[in-house]
Amino acid sequence: LQKLIHLLQATDDPLIQEQALITLSNSAAFSVNQDIIRNLDGLSIIGGMLSDCVPKVTEKALNALNNLSMNIKNQEEIQEYITEVCRNIEAAPLNSDLQLAGLRLLTNMSVTRDYHHKMINSIPCFFHLLSEGTERTQIHVLKVLVNLSANPAMTRHLLRAQV
């Protein structure tokens, strides 16, 4: 894991970055690896790849963070990227794998109320995706919206959103 994280830092080759991120993502399926990746500063390195100009690299970074977000301590660090994830979702092509990867991460990050406030500005985008997206996109958006709607503090924001 340490070598993969160092590889991510050392290379600018998008194909190598994609493969390293896929491997880290698969490794994150095991809870012990989630802690190791966090302790090796892997979350910030992977999070730094969210601004990559190659969409496939960003998508793979989102997938890795999604798998890593199953851990409360990891969520505390990943929450710093929620605004950027929302921007990626809004900027991504409609129904793209990149958009879906971002929505999956937001679904995990919105299970608890802790980070809902960071998604408020994207509520209009979520409603747009709900009306314009494919069934697959709609399902992922609905998961986020259901999580947000479980929080009474979000009611006003959900009902007042410009759609």
From TrEMBL:
Its main location: mitochondrion. Residues 1-163 form the Armadillo repeat-containing domain. SUPFAM superfamilies: ARM repeat (SSF48371). GO terms for cellular component: mitochondrial outer membrane. It is found in: Mitochondrion outer membrane. It comes from the Eukaryota. Pfam families: Arm_2 (PF04826). It is a single-pass membrane protein. Signal peptide: none annotated. Gene3D superfamilies: Leucine-rich Repeat Variant. Keywords: Membrane, Mitochondrion, Mitochondrion outer membrane, Transmembrane, Transmembrane helix. InterPro entries: ARM-like, ARM-rpt_dom, ARM-type_fold, Armcx_regulator. PANTHER family: ARMADILLO REPEAT CONTAINING 10, ARMADILLO REPEAT CONTAINING PROTEIN. This is ARM10 protein.
